[in-house]
Amino acid sequence: MKEKRENLSWVSVRLKPEIYTRLKEESQSLKMSLSQLIRMKLSSEETKIIDLNGLLNSIEKLVSEQARVNNNINQLAKHANTYRDKISPSVFKDHTMLMSKHIEHRDFMNKLLKQIYQAIR
To answer: What is the pLDDT of residues 3-44, one digit of tens each?
Structure first.
């Protein structure tokens, strides 16, 4: 929300070029003016600025990695079924235990990703 000009005071600050560049890049990535960013950073210690594009890219990478893991599991299961008679029963027992752990972790991660997505939406 824009404030009335008469309610604002002017402050001049000297910044090192690397700090100015970092602030300018951050303001552009957050799609806000440099003044808005600086006011936000100064207004409260509890204010947290989140780079949504970076967060969404990270979530996208996690989901892609999870898809690759699931694909690998499917390939291993297909291979195990093809050579079922040559594989020891203990391997299948270990696989079942590890698969249940994997499913627990996968479901937990999916739940957290869904909560993050809903929070930023």
So the answer is: 566 677 888 889 999 999 999 998 888 888 898 888 888 886
The residue segments making up the domain with residue 108 are: 52-120
Same domain, 56 and 94: yes
Judgement on whether residues 86 and 30 belong to the same structural domain of the protein: no
Number of domains in the chain: 2
pTM over 0.85: no
Alpha-carbon distances of 108 from 33, 102, 103, 114, rounded to whole Å? 38, 10, 8, 10
CA angle 92, 84, 70 (to 5 degrees): 60
pLDDT digits (tens, 9 = 90+) for 45-67: 665 667 777 788 888 898 889 88
Rounded Cα distance, 120 and 55, in Å: 10
Q: Are residues 62 and 27 in the same domain?
A: no
